[in-house]
Amino acid sequence: MGLPEGWTRYGADDEKILSSHRYRALGNAIALPCAEYIMAGIAEALTKGGANDGI
């Protein structure tokens, strides 16, 4: 997923989060490298101008 090992082990209140809750949350997440790739493509299209400019 691109997250450091154990990154989701504790919540904001420093209490340990149940593994089942962590797995559910991560199952609904997007992999960080994938999100970075998509956002880089969007940023490039916005800064260079996309193929649909002027439409």
Q: Nutshell version of this structure?
A:
By secondary structure, the chain is mainly α. It contains 2 helices and no strands.
Can you describe this structure?
With 55 residues, the chain is mainly α. It has one domain. It contains 2 helices and no strands. The mean pLDDT is 82.
Would you report the number of β strands? 0
Helix content bin: 40-55%
List the domain count as a whole number: 1
**Structural class, please?**
mainly alpha
Work out the oligomeric state of the chains in this entry: single chain
User: What order do the helices and strands follow?
Assistant: HH
**Biggest pleated sheet:** none
Question: What is the radius of gyration computed over CA atoms, rounded to a whole number of angstroms?
Answer: 17 Å
Helical element count?
2
Overall average residue pLDDT: 82
Taken as a percent bin, the fraction of beta residues is: under 5%
Shape: elongated
Ends apart, CA distance between termini: 37 Å
Low-confidence stretches: none
Which secondary structure elements does this structure contain, and how are they paired or packed?
Blueprint: H1 19-27, H2 32-48
What are the main properties of this structure?
2 helices; elongated; 55 residues
